[in-house]
Amino acid sequence: MSGDTPKTGALDTFPKLLAENVRARREKPASREKDYGIWQSWTWAEVAEEIRAMACGFAALGIKQGDKVAICGDNRPHLYWSMTAVQTLGAIPVPVYQDSVPEEMQFIYEHAEAKYAIVENQEQVDKLLEILDRTPILKHIIYKFPRGMRHYNQPFLHLLADVQEQGRAFDAKNPGFYETSVGKTKGSDIAIMLYTSGTTGKPKGVMLSFDNLIITGRNGAIREGLREDEDMLAYLPMAWIGDNIFSVAQAYTTGFCVSCPESSETVLEDLREIGPTYFFAPPRIYENLLTTVMIRIEDAAKIKQRMFRYFMDVARRVGMDILDGKPVTTADRLRYWLGNILVYAPLKNVLGLSNVRVAYTAGEAIGPDIFTFYRSLGLNLKQMYASTEASVFITIQPDGEVHPESSGTPAIDVELKVTDEGEVMFRSPGVFQAYYKNEEETKATKTEDGWVHTGDAGYLDKGGHLHIIDRSKDVGKLNDGTLFAPKFIENKLKFFPHIREAVTFGHERDYVACFINIDLESVGNWAERRNMAYMGYTDLAGQDPVYELISECVAQVNRDLSEDEKLHGSQIKRFLILHKELDADDGELTRTRKVRRKHVSEKYADLITALYSDTDHCRIEAEVTFEDGRTDIINADLRIMEAARIGSAGSHAEAAE
After folding, report:
1. Which of 261, 228, 233 is nearest to 247 (CA)?
2. Burial class (CB in 10 A: 0-12, 13-18, 19+), 37
3. What is the largest CA-CA distance in the chain?
4. Yes or no: is domain 476-642 CATH 3.30.300.30?
5. Hey, what CATH topology would domain 14-270 get?
6. Model pTM greater than 0.85?
7. Residue 630 reports pLDDT greater than 70
């Protein structure tokens, strides 16, 4: 066996790019993984040998062209490699969110018609065994880690290492099979099928070709000048399109190394050790990091708190101008230089972001205040507008033109337009092929000439920058005609470290009202410093001091909204703090933590009714699902609080309530 480059022609598939990387950078690191506290590394040549053994082993097991192969687990090099091995045979990998409950998995396995599954460990095997009688098409399950599997003796279960050994034997008996298989792959072939989060209904299987992923990934790398010496930490779900572009497509086209953390609990520590130069995180991650920072500052000595606040004021005033190369006074530049020594650099080091050249955020709109916070520290954080149907890149903020309120300009080879109705549409090399077994939705989403309906409302400014207002279907108006953009308001609320989630209501109503989830870690830390006793989330969320704390956050958001000519009338009038955290296991969030608005509205209809009445409390009885699958009933008497509002745009006189 050999990892040498087979004769493959155009480098238009991942198996072909793998061979090219072996030729061009054979001994350079391609993959890393932390295991038992020690970083292990594989060169491109070693990765190619592992994938070759997998591909031949999968062929021996019966995987062939067109088969769907589900892949599920945390970010592990062997799972990434298994996708390329599957693609070598002309089969299609179907990544599944590793935290999905069995019923969610069942839908995807049935819909995708997956005959094979490659999973990480016993936990994922057990989920599949639970639904096996309902997914008769599933024939074989391959697992990576043998721990806990000693007494699992079903003939359809296979240890990945054993499959690789069978592959090496198969390779020896069938010389040339691997090279021939690689050569047969084409850029137009379906490379992967990724399921949407299912915010408004059942998830849809998005079919993407090698051309979609490779051209888009390469264009993104060109736009940002990515090189083979970049370091990337792969910690986001493998079932998400972003991970497949950043950790696979761009790694293969550019040749940089991708590192996998030891576990989800060690990501921050592993991030500091790797010190990535190229980093992506959805807004929730940046929000969580900011919450961690604010908690530490609250626990710090008074002199450190004053120093932090002073230099953060300097950063907010001039940090973004310095990052963008704009003129700043000598005095402010000196203050920022000192602040960098004392605050900004140590803070970025603690967060593991010291070496980052380019950082992205997308998926949900990030709060302008959060975005400004990171850029003012000197972190080159950019927003982009992305979707699964686009193979990620639609717009990216260009260097020197990074504005908190915009999503940037079109990526390379992307065409953009806004319809008369205000809907954003795009056309690009990354446009998906179709939704699997859903011709009706495909035709409704993609026009015959390749334009894609995003379902998002937005506009292009004079500089060609895209501004996303909200989902088209979510943007509404109050009864007095005031524009109501729920996501915009919710993102402003979530800037505060004490607020983890928010859901606003107001369309065709007299005023805006809101559900709020407190952040248990942040508010819990705040409560402990005040010697407040509490037993869990429900108890803490219902306490009067916590309501006063959140009321201050809501009042600040209302002050900000009062300055907006279009949105000053959509200030929050009434809010309540939910008795439980919104949870994907309870169907309230998607696996990517997007709110399922319809489900939340139906489930908590009584609470919404109470918000739009004159009552100041509402009793609730709700079922919750724990991580181990157990359920329980929570009873709570929720307080409804009036929020301080500003009388008119530009006025700071509090309205009488």
Report:
1. 233
2. exposed
3. 84
4. yes
5. Rossmann fold (3.40.50)
6. no
7. no
